Amino acid sequence: MSPGITKLGRGVRDALLPALLALAGQLLLTVLTTSVVVLDYLSHAWFLAIMAFWVLVFRQQFPIGRLTRQSLRGWFGPWIIVGGLNLIIALQGSGLKVHHAVIAWLVFEGIVVGPVEELLFRGLIQTTLNRVIGGERLFGRIRWGTILATLTFGLAHLANLSHQSLGVTIQQVIFAMITGLVLGHYYDRSQNLWGAAVLHNIIDFTSVLVPLLIVR
Questions:
Q1: Is 96 helix (H, G, I), strand (E, B) or coil?
Q2: pLDDT in tens, 16-67
Q3: DSSP 108
Q4: Burial of 64 (0-12, 13-18, 19+ CB in 10 A)
């Protein structure tokens, strides 16, 4: 078997298949539960299970980096700039109603979502795609594997159609692709998944907390 076919096969197994499983699991869970918070926790437990299976069974490896100031220095700028822009956007939005599961929701957005989604989409899927495609870059800067992983990450948000309108969901998909491209690019540069997880949590947490505090 030629090296090209072998690389393609690994790309399908270690990038496309996990992405399809993630989306299929989300769609199934939308049928099984009507609670958005429960759906979020269950779908991300599924994401974590997919990632763990590929690491333990297929021995997939990807850079995680260290949780030290020196290792995270390259992320300070994105944390401040992207986090600040997201805060401004959140302040322009309408308020959200406080519901009984608000604490579980905030814990999810502030702690759970970042590490889990980054492990699957940036760690496993993006790393695999960049290994398969190689060092080819768009405009000499962004790797094509990173772009494809970003598209996958954005499309995964289509599962939100189960509890919100098409218009809002499309906005989320586009926003996820834009932020995913930033996360993926800086992960490629730093090889530190902690930085991506922290930025991801900052974005999602402020997107929920700020509207909850807004009184219209």
A1: coil
A2: 999 999 999 999 999 898 888 999 999 999 999 999 999 999 999 999 999 9
A3: I
A4: middle
d(CA 109, CA 40): 9
Expressed as residue numbers, the domain containing 83 is 3-213
Find, among 76, 72, 99, 108, the residue nearest to 201 by Cα.
108
- Report the distance separating Cα 108 and Cα 44, nearest Å: 10
Total-model pTM: 0.93
Q: How many domains does the chain have?
A: 1
Q: What is the pLDDT of residues 88-144, one digit of tens each?
A: 988 887 666 666 678 898 999 999 999 999 999 999 999 999 999 987 788 778 999
CA–CA dist 90, 113 (Å, integer): 18
